[in-house]
Amino acid sequence: MASPPTKQSILHLYHSMLRTSQSFSSYNFRHYFVRRTKEMFRDIQKETDEAKLAAFYAEKAKELAVLKRSAIVNRLYGGWKLVVEDQKPSRERSDS
């Protein structure tokens, strides 16, 4: 059996998943995956069973790879920004 992941490696995985979730161009996907990632890692935070931690880490590492590929595809085919997203202010030209 493989050794259980360290707290630092789980935190690294968590931050990688959050960073990847933030890279989606679609507002809905981005916020869904950020919220989902936070909920998943909140549930495992107090787990002490090494077998469950190892299984969780392996599953989420595979999921991170899928998330990265999905984010790339989403950026390639991303649509327009929604009204609820922060829009960059457009500069108006003054004729005076």
UniProtKB/TrEMBL annotation:
<dbReference type="GO" id="GO:1990221">
    <property type="term" value="C:L-cysteine desulfurase complex"/>
</dbReference>
<dbReference type="InterPro" id="IPR051522">
    <property type="entry name" value="ISC_assembly_LYR"/>
</dbReference>
<protein>
    <recommendedName>
        <fullName>Complex 1 LYR protein domain-containing protein</fullName>
    </recommendedName>
</protein>
<dbReference type="GO" id="GO:0005739">
    <property type="term" value="C:mitochondrion"/>
</dbReference>
<dbReference type="Pfam" id="PF05347">
    <property type="entry name" value="Complex1_LYR"/>
</dbReference>
<dbReference type="InterPro" id="IPR045297">
    <property type="entry name" value="Complex1_LYR_LYRM4"/>
</dbReference>
<feature type="domain" description="Complex 1 LYR protein">
    <location>
        <begin position="9"/>
        <end position="64"/>
    </location>
</feature>
<comment type="similarity">
    <text>Belongs to the complex I LYR family.</text>
</comment>
<dbReference type="GO" id="GO:0016226">
    <property type="term" value="P:iron-sulfur cluster assembly"/>
</dbReference>
<dbReference type="InterPro" id="IPR008011">
    <property type="entry name" value="Complex1_LYR_dom"/>
</dbReference>
